[in-house]
Amino acid sequence: NSVMATTLESYLNQTVSVVTNDGRIVVGLLKGFDQTINVILENSHERVYSSASGVEQVALGLYIIRGDNIAVIGEIDEEMDSTLDLAEIRADPLNSIVH
Fold first, then answer.
1. Closest CA to 40 of 30, 50, 48
2. 15-20 and 70-75 as β-strands: parallel, antiparallel, unpaired?
3. pTM for this predicted structure
4. Secondary structure string (H, E, C) spanning the chain
5. Is residue 98 within 8 Å of 58, Cβ to Cβ?
6. Contact, 42 vs 65, CB < 8 A?
7. Which residues, 6 or more positions from 43, have their beta carbon under 8 angstroms from its beta carbon?
8. Does 3 have pLDDT greater than 90?
9. Mean of pLDDT values over 36-54
10. Residue 1 pLDDT
């Protein structure tokens, strides 16, 4: 868990993407985390993917995600992310993780 904590520490005050076990994708500024990898995101939004229409962004604001519900956390390249036309992206939503 110390490797994860060290990695997350380097992501503090950076924009991250969190994929949850139920397939949701939440993007926000990582403001904090604890030893069980509960994370606090600021100015966050959920990106809802659809194969029929573009990506919908649902504003969440300050948001806490429980560590046991997190599948993946990754840093977002904000410069590249800002060039994406989310209205034009088509993708099936992710399925829930099955253990």
1. 30
2. antiparallel
3. 0.91
4. CHHHHHHHHHHCCCEEEEEECCCCEEEEEEEEECCCCCEEEEEEEEEECCCCCCCEEEEEEEEEECHHHEEEEEECCHHHHHHCCHHHCCCCCCCCCCC
5. no
6. no
7. 28, 29, 61, 62
8. no
9. 95
10. 63
